Every structure is written in C-alpha cells, then in structure tokens.
C-alpha cells in the first residue's frame, strides 16, 4: 500500500534556482539560504521517497488568462522545465507517476473533489526550485513527481479550509493505491512577499513564524484563516501559503516538526521551510 511518510514545505523563489544554476550558492548572500536545506538533503537521502506529490502554483507558464484551473493534477509521464524568459532551467526533465496520478484524480473526483486532469504541461520555478533545494544538482531527479497545480495567481484562489480538505482527500487516495510506495507531499510558495504595488518588498517575520508554529501539533486553526489576512499580513503573494495547507491536511490530525528554517532576505521573499512527520494515530 502507498503511504505518506512526510510533508515538506518551502518557498520557491526563482532567484534561488538561478543562484544554483549559476554556481553562486557559496556567495555570502546565498550561502545562509542553502545552509537551511542541508538537513533536508540528508533526510531525503535517508528516506528515499519513491514519489513526491508536489503542490505548487504555475506562474503564467503553463496556464494564462485563457485557462485558470483552481486545482489541477499532472497525469503525464514527463514534464519539461518551462521557459520563463531566460530559457528552461538546466535541470532534469521531471518524471511523472501516471498510474498514481490517475488514481488520485479518480479517487478525488469520486470523493467530490473535481480536479482538472492535465496531460501535457511544462513546470516552472514553483515546482523545479523546491526539487533543486531538496536534491541539489543531479543528472536525474531521484523521485517521480505528481504535480498538483493550484491557482493562487488570479482571484479567487481556493480557501485555506478547502485546501486542507483537498489534502485530506489526497491522503485517502494515496492510502487506497495498491502499490507499495513511499510518498511525500510538498507544499510550496510563500512566505510573506509582495512583488507589486506600493507595498512591494513587504516581509512579516512575526506573522510567518506564527504560521510555521501552527503547522505542527494538532491545531487546525490555519484552515480558518481568511484570504484578507494573508493579503494584509503576508502581502499579495503571501496567499501562496494556502498551498502549504494541502500538504498539512494530507498529514492527518497530528504532525511532528522535524526541521524548520526561516531566513530573510532572499530576493523579495521570506524563505520558510519546514519538514513534518505525520503522527500515527
Ligand atoms: C519571487 C518569489 C516567488 O514566489 C515568485 O513566484 C516569484 C518571485 C521573488 O522573491 O522574487
Ligand atoms: Fe511564487
């Protein structure tokens, strides 16, 4: 039987990918950012997950104003890194797990979560930067990936409560998949950042850390946080954090924090990273 063994959340800042691709990780500005992921790179070497369900948002790379799925699942065998204006990142092609992805699609739809099936899409920094942070520069990604794309770019994004419930539905889907697979679920984006308008550059360390505090243990307070609080406290792009709640919802009632990292500055964004283990009930 497939099982979810860990949940990981991380920011997905494009400049972090560029720093890696251009050999700048040891520069004074970037070294502390990458150091925050050393623990997790070792963790992943020990855990050897087979599949990562990678919750991220597309930033007008695969989708645009013509098509805006709230929740979409990538069911293809492979996903190419997107060209975001500088050519595709020099990272491996992302291998999918079509059987698991179609199973999750079926299970979720029959569970009344009507997600959009995508059979062809390029994946942007929202998905590839987290892979680079967790696995470094590799010839081939050591995991298969089931991409779950969430609309947080164009109003209205899904509520935190809906995201949490979607995570619970994904967990039920994974539990009912026959193959013996070690599955992780990742949530990406955030933490506080605003890339536009008069408040561009906004960072809110105190609020971010309160958010991190409430991801472990048994509280589900975050599922009730309204959109307006993300916008007010974490900036217009802080709304990406609702994707972390899909990860958290999939871990069940209780989760233990194994690792946590928070760092400012990195580009325009507060870097947040947490590794969680679902507690057996
Ligand atoms: C930045 C952060 C993001 O999450 C993103 O999608 C784009 C840019 C930034 O900090 O520059
Ligand atoms: Fe983003």
From TrEMBL:
Keywords: Dioxygenase, Oxidoreductase. Coiled coil: none annotated. Gene3D superfamilies: LigB-like. GO terms for molecular function: ferrous iron binding; oxidoreductase activity, acting on single donors with incorporation of molecular oxygen, incorporation of two atoms of oxygen. Residues 8-271 form the Extradiol ring-cleavage dioxygenase class III enzyme subunit B domain. Pfam families: LigB. This is Protocatechuate 3,4-dioxygenase. It comes from Sphingomonas desiccabilis.
């Amino acid at each position: 039987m497939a099982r979810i063994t860990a949940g990981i959340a991380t920011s997905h800042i494009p400049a972090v990918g560029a720093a890696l691709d251009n050999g700048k990780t040891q520069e004074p500005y970037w070294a502390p950012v990458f150091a925050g992921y050393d623990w997790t790179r070792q963790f992943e070497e020990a855990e050897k997950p087979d599949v990562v369900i990678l919750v991220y948002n597309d930033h007008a790379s695969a989708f645009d104003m013509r098509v805006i799925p709230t929740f979409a699942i990538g069911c293809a065998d492979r996903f190419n890194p997107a060209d975001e204006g500088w050519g595709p990142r020099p990272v491996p092609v992302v291998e999918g797990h079509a059987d698991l992805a179609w199973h999750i699609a079926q299970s979720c739809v029959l569970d009344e979560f009507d997600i959009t099936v995508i059979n062809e899409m390029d994946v942007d920094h929202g998905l590839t930067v987290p892979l680079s942070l967790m696995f470094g520069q590799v010839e081939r990604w050591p995991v298969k990936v089931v991409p779950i794309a969430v609309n947080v770019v164009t109003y209205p994004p899904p509520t935190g409560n809906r995201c949490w419930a979607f995570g619970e539905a994904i967990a039920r889907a994974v539990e009912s998949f026959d193959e013996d697979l070690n599955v992780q679920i990742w949530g990406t984006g955030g933490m506080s950042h605003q890339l536009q308008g008069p408040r561009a550059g906004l960072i809110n360390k105190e609020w971010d850390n309160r958010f991190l505090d409430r991801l472990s243990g048994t509280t589900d307070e975050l599922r009730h946080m309204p959109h307006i609080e993300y916008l007010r406290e974490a900036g217009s792009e802080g709304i990406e954090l609702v994707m972390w709640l899909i990860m958290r919802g999939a871990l069940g009632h209780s989760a233990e924090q194994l690792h946590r990292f928070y760092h400012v500055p990195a580009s325009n964004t507060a870097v947040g990273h947490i590794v969680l283990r679902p507690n057996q009930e």
